[in-house]
Amino acid sequence: MTPDPKLRAALEPAWSELREQRLLGRIAEGRRQRGHRRRRALALAGAMVLAGATAAVVIGVRHPAPPVAGRSADSAPRLTLADGSEATLTPDGNVQIDEQTAARVKLRQRSGSARYVVRHDPARDFLVSAGDVTVRVRGTIFSVAMRADTVDVSVERGRVEVTDALRTRDLVAGESLSLPAHGRPAAPAEPPPESPPATAPPPAAASRARAAPARPSGSELLARADAARAAGRSAEAAQALEAFVADHPRDPRAAAALFTLGRVDAARGQWRPAADAFDRCAAARAGGPLADDALAEGAQAWHAAGVADRARSDARAYLAAHPAGLHAAAMRRLVDD
C-alpha cells in the first residue's frame, strides 16, 4: 500500500541544512566503522598466517641425535701386512712386526686384544707371540687377548698351533684356550719323606693287583702325548694318542686326537699311518670344522706314501665338499697328477 504523499510530508521533518549535516555525519561514521572492521579482519588473518608458518617451522626443525660414545668397528686400529693378512686391534691393543718375509711373518702382541685374518699360504710360517705363548698358523681367523696374567686364544676358522713354556696344543674352529702369560716349567717337587715300610699284602691281593693294573684316564693319556711331543719323543706321543682313541672312541676329543696323531706320524715320516689317522679323523668329524683339513692332510699323506689312488680319492672328496676351500688348489693338483 502506497502512503499518502500529504500524510508522508506531514510526518517527515522538513529538510534543512542541519538535517543534511547529521545525515552526512552518519554516512561517514558508517564508512569509518566498516573500514575499522576490515582492518581488524585483515590483521587477524595475517596473525593466523604468521602463526601457521611459525608452527610449520617449529614442527619441521629436527634436533640432531646425541653423539654415541665409543668407536665404530670401521675406526678400530688395523694392521695390514704385505701379503694381505690383517690384524684388527682393540683401542688398547699393541702389535709390532718383528719379521716379514715371503717365508716367515712374526708379530709380537704386547697388550690388548687383536683379531687376525691370515691369508692361507702353506709355504709361509705366520707366528704371533704374546708373552710366553706363540700361535703358529698357515691361514685362518683367530683372536688373541692379553689379560693381566693369561693369554686367551680362540679360533673362528681353520686350526692353529699354540705353544707355551710347557707344551704344544692344536686348536680348531670353535675352540679356545687360556694359558699363563708368563708360565715356566715348575721345579721338580721334593720327594716326600720316607715312611715306615707298609705291611706286605697277602699273596692273593698282590696277585690281583698285578693282574689288573689301573688304566689311565683320557686326560692323562692326552697329557702324556702333549709332554712327549714337547720333549720331541714322537713315538711315545703317537702311542699315547693311539691308546686314547682306542680306549675312549666316543670322547668328544677323539677326532682332534686323531688329527694330532696324523701330524705326529707325518712329522716322523710315517706316511701311511699318518694318512690313515687323517682319514679316520675326517670320518669321525664328517661335516665338522676339522673334516676339510683332515681330508686335505690325508690326501697329501697318501701322496707322500706313494698311494696315488687314495690321494686322489681324498682330494676328490675334499673338492666335492669344499670346492672353494683353502686347500682347493692343492687338491686339484693331486687330482690331475
Task: Outline the structure in words.
This protein is an alpha+beta fold and 337 residues long. Among the domains are: 105 residues, Jelly Rolls; 120 residues, Serine Threonine Protein Phosphatase 5, Tetratricopeptide repeat (Alpha Horseshoe). It contains ten helices and twelve strands. The strands form two sheets. It has a six-stranded antiparallel beta sheet with strand order 1-2-5-8-9-12, with no helix packed on it. Strand 8 and strand 9 form a beta hairpin. It starts with a helix and ends with a helix. About 8% of the residues have low confidence.
Give the secondary structure arrangement, pairings included.
Blueprint lengths: L4 H7 L5 H44 L17 E3 L5 E4 L4 E7 L3 E8 L1 E5 L7 E6 L2 E5 L3 E6 L3 E8 L1 E5 L4 E5 L3 E5 L22 H9 L6 H13 L3 H14 L6 H14 L3 H14 L6 H14 L3 H14 L6 H9 L1
Parallel strand pairs: 4-6
Antiparallel strand pairs: 1-2, 2-5, 3-4, 5-8, 6-7, 7-10, 8-9, 9-12, 10-11
Helix pairs in contact: 4-5, 5-6, 6-7, 7-8, 8-9, 9-10
Considering the chains and any ligands shown, give keywords for the structure.
alpha+beta, six-stranded antiparallel sheet
Give the overall shape.
elongated
CATH topology of the domain at 217-336: Serine Threonine Protein Phosphatase 5, Tetratricopeptide repeat
Largest sheet: 6 strands, antiparallel
CATH top level of the domain at 217-336?
Mainly Alpha
- How many helices in DSSP terms? 10
CATH H-tier superfamily of the domain at 217-336: Tetratricopeptide repeat domain
What's the SSE pattern?
HHEEEEEEEEEEEEHHHHHHHH
The helix-and-strand class reads alpha+beta
